[in-house]
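Sorry to interrupt, but I need a hand with the structure work. I would like you to pick a protein and set down its sequence and fold. Please put the record directly below this note.
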Amino acid sequence: MRIGIDLGGTKIEGLALLDDGTEAVRQRVATPRTYGATLDALARLVERLEAEVGQTGTVGLCIPGALEAETGRVKNANSTWLNRHPLADDFGERLGREVRLTNDANAFALSEATDGAGAGAEVVFGVILGTGVGGGIVVRGRVLEGANRIGGEWGHIPLPWPTDDERPGPPCYCGRHGCIETWLAGPSLARDHEHHTGAVLSTHEIVRQSEAGEAAAQATMERYVGRLGRSLGQIVTILDPDVIVLGGGVSNAPRLAERAEEALRPWVFSDRVATRVVRNVHGDSSGVRGAAWLWPSEER
């Protein structure tokens, strides 16, 4: 049995998967706001999952942050009480067994590569288009985290081939201007619409109006798809994945995957583009499922 845990800012979700990938049980608890209480909640959640199934399992954990390569301590987590702590080691000590930890975007990519929209592909790039822009790379069933543990963080490279009116680009919290995240995150889509129309609308409403044929919303979506195409085209030229899987709230826009696949082709350094762009299969469940799949079958 595999146990996956998705540690979010407001909730912790735990999932027990049987060896064939079948979901046995799922539970959610509120996320405490201190480090010690979070460790307690994680340990109790594992105990409850195992008690309900009647088996002991491997444990994988995903968080909205990363681990420092040298120290194993958490960095860049928006749940700030986790930062600078060796979370995987401390959690493993509580349980008396190894705990594997990865970024939540990596877990999304691994889930979809294992038994989701990218199943069977050799190289999968998982994309998060939500409040921010993240990504994860899976090669032959394993997460590629990289030497700096930032593999897949495409949200913080510049928007490629910018037009004159896209320079220098909006400011990013990382300290630079024009990062892909400042153009492709959900709030960025809404900001772009307001900039061009003066109308303050949610991302959901812009998508709805575009589908209804409203011209200004359609123009906003055209700009968005064009920027997404340029950005993914650059990723294809660098990584050359078999499949790109879209996740996050913006990925729910109708036909976005199909439009993005068409839009990226002119920007790829190849006369033929075989990379597919698809919508995710597991949706909000992908993070917790990917955490469970951090333990491949051959290692158990």
